[in-house]
Amino acid sequence: MASLSEQPRKGGREKAKLEPRVRVQILSCSMAWCYVGAENGSVRGFVEKSALWGVYPHETID
User: Fold this and answer.
1) What is the pLDDT of residues 2-58, one digit of tens each?
2) DSSP state string for the chain
3) Nearest Cα to 14, choosing from 24, 32, 2, 26?
4) Inter-residue contact 37 to 15 (CB < 8 Å)
5) pLDDT at 39
6) Residue 42 buriedness (CB in 10 A; 0-12 / 13-18 / 19+)
7) Interacting residues of 9 by C-beta distance below 8 A, sequence separation 6+
8) Which residues are CB-neighbours of 13 under 8 A, at least 6 positions away?
9) Beta bridge partners of 5
10) What is d(CA 8, CA 17) in angstroms, rounded to the nearest whole number?
11) Measuring CA to CA, how many Å separate 33 from each of 38, 40, 42?
12) CA distance 16 to 30
């Protein structure tokens, strides 16, 4: 399970747990974190990039 956090840092307040194979919309990515929307965008937060499939380690998205 991946943690969906309010802030892009370890130990931040967790908003939700994302189960394996859940689909999220990637809104932006830095080198280590991605800002994503889940459940049709009603829940948004940060996920460590390494927990996502389909995003390259050095890829950034604005």
Assistant:
1) 999 999 999 889 999 999 999 999 999 999 999 999 877 789 999 999 999 999 999
2) -EEEESSSSTTPPEEEEEPTT---EEEEE-SSEEEEEETTTTEEEEEEGGG-SS--TT--B-
3) 2
4) no
5) 78
6) exposed
7) none
8) 5, 6, 7
9) 14, 46
10) 15
11) 15, 20, 19
12) 20
Residues counted in the chain: 62
Strand partners, 29: 34, 61
Residue tagged 């974190």 (tokens): 33
Q: What is the pTM of this model?
A: 0.90
